[in-house]
Design goal:
The structure holds two protein chains of two kinds. Helices cover 77% and strands 0% of the residues of chain A. Chain A is an all-alpha fold. The longest helix of chain A has 32 residues, at 96-127. Chain A starts with a helix and ends with a helix. By secondary structure, chain B is of the alpha/beta class. Classes of the chains: A mainly alpha, B alpha/beta. At the A-B interface, α1 and α5 of A face α1, α2, α3 and α5 of B.
């Protein structure tokens, strides 16, 4: 009960921080960006097939918007506290470090998924797909899975190299998600991008139409396996981050 | 009760050399006592306090806070300790009341307990008039009092205060030190470090002088004050008389 109170306190505190006018304006601009791109594309060619629109929305919302949103909200989980000199006050509370990590994770997922869902709604309207409930619900799930998986992924660099968390997370995003994720090898099984792609391909019914070389880039297990894999991956990464954070030490010199 | 036994903290510096920030420190603070931890910059005061607050893990030795060992029961220590660091920050966008509520929730206090404790602390610390103003708009003295309130929100039996009067003017420092007297009279165990020796000369029951990570002198207030030149002279004598490292 105490642990939940602590986690919810941190989550509320982080949401309050995110509700600053500048952050809201940035989030709204970010949310409108995919719709603007889609409108620009449709202006050039108004007869694009639905599949291409779906691919565009996929690249812009569950990938780009979620990734950027989480980089901003999840990476500074420790760095912000160090910078503001509030780190000690969180860590000298019983369970403070765990509350900080999990609370920030919940706030990052809540905030980013809200922005991404708004972005999705605008993108679907811009693409002329707002009445297709199946596509809309598919993207809602992709956004939520993307946020949960990537927020947990960024928790690791945030606690390992808190002062360079943003740079490390960008590197992780490229190396793990977009390099390892596209390798036709076992390593891609532990990436969120493989699971998202596989869900997209299966729900869009593109599996049979894929050229054989592209089949290597998706996983053919049913959707529930993909979602479970992301949840399991997120749990493992959050647990690892929590253990690292529990053992992390900050000598006075390291904070200045 | 705070008991420190042979506490050591060694770091490896960037050039590979070994830094003995704290090197076998031992002392104790009894309930109802204020003990002053004195030392120059870099003497090891802050590192010692951070070890006691479980922010750092010791290389050797241990300490017990209110009966809880920092090595075997750090959670117990955190439950029973109020810690104020020299570099403490308060979130600019939260009000003092919200800061106290946040700290209370991190301690797992329920709503009623938090409301009662916050109201009492805001009154005691003289923050009632600015309780709903964002901390970013408070003076440094008010922010320091918010910070102290945050350390006291769970009513801990032991307090570790690292340079608590740092950002305070004369009046603010006097009020804060008077509050320490009240807490001491209520039976709290208080360890305080400061550079302003005159502020704590008459307030502390005992002093521990630390230099280059080692305790170079400790004694009662009477013993230190009996020296010609008082505490300041005794402090310099202890530091300058210690073996060079």
């Amino acid at each position: 009960m105490n642990a939940i109170r602590g986690i919810m306190a941190v989550a509320g505190f982080q949401i309050r921080r995110l509700l600053a006018p500048q952050r809201i304006i940035m989030a709204l601009i970010g949310a409108a960006f995919p719709a603007a791109v889609i409108l620009a594309v449709r202006r050039v060619d108004s007869g694009l097939p639905v599949e291409l629109m779906v691919l565009l929305i996929y690249a812009l919302v569950p990938e780009a918007v979620c990734m950027l949103g989480l980089l901003v909200t999840m990476c500074p989980v420790v760095a912000d506290e160090l910078e503001r000199g509030t780190w000690q006050q969180v860590t000298v509370r019983p369970g403070g470090r765990r509350s900080l990590l999990v609370g920030t994770f919940l706030a990052a997922v809540g905030w980013t998924s809200t922005v991404a869902l708004l972005s999705l709604a605008l993108a679907l309207v811009a693409a002329g797909l707002s009445r297709d409930g199946q596509i809309a619900s598919m993207f809602v799930v992709l956004v939520l899975v993307s946020c949960v998986g990537r927020a947990a992924l960024f928790a690791l660099p945030a606690v390992i190299v808190p002062k360079r968390a943003l740079v490390a997370s960008v590197a992780v995003a490229f190396v793990v998600e977009y390099l390892a994720g596209f390798l036709p090898a076992v390593i891609n099984q532990v990436t969120v991008s493989l699971r998202l792609r596989s869900l997209l391909v299966q729900w869009m019914g593109w599996q049979r139409r894929l050229p054989p070389e592209l089949e290597l880039l998706i996983d053919t297990q049913p959707p529930w396996v993909q979602v479970t894999a992301v949840l399991a991956l997120a749990s493992v990464m959050l647990f690892a981050a929590s253990v690292i954070l529990a053992w992390r030490q900050f000598p006075p010199a390291e904070e200045s | 009760m705070i008991e420190v036994v042979g506490l050591k903290k060694h770091f490896r510096a960037a050039d590979g050399s070994l830094v003995r920030a704290v090197d076998g420190v031992s002392f104790s603070v009894a309930p109802g006592e204020i003990v002053g931890l004195l030392g120059a910059n870099g003497a090891g005061k802050t590192t010692t306090m951070r070890l006691l607050a479980t922010l750092l893990a010791p290389t050797a030795g241990t300490a017990r806070i209110a009966g809880y060992d920092i090595l075997t029961d750090p959670i117990g220590v955190r439950r029973h300790l109020g810690y104020l660091s020299a570099t403490t920050g308060v979130p600019d966008r939260l009000t003092p009341r919200e800061v106290l509520e946040f700290a209370g929730r991190l301690h797992g206090l329920d709503r009623a307990a938090i409301a009662e404790r916050s109201a009492s602390l805001l009154h005691t610390l003289g923050l009632e008039s600015c309780a709903s103003r964002p901390c970013g708009r408070l003076s440094s003295g008010q922010r320091q009092r918010v910070s102290l309130g945050r350390a006291l929100v769970h009513d801990p039996p032991a307090l570790i205060l690292d340079e608590p009067t740092n950002a305070l003017d004369v009046v603010g420092a006097r009020d804060l030190l008077a509050l320490l007297d009240t807490l001491r009279d209520a039976g709290r165990t208080i360890l305080v470090s400061t550079h302003r020796l005159h502020e704590i000369e008459r307030r502390c029951c005992r002093f521990v002088v630390i230099h280059a990570g080692r305790v170079v002198a400790q004694g009662t207030q009477e013993e230190f004050s009996a020296e010609p030149g008082g505490l300041e002279r005794a402090f310099f004598a202890a530091v300058e008389g210690s073996a060079p490292t």
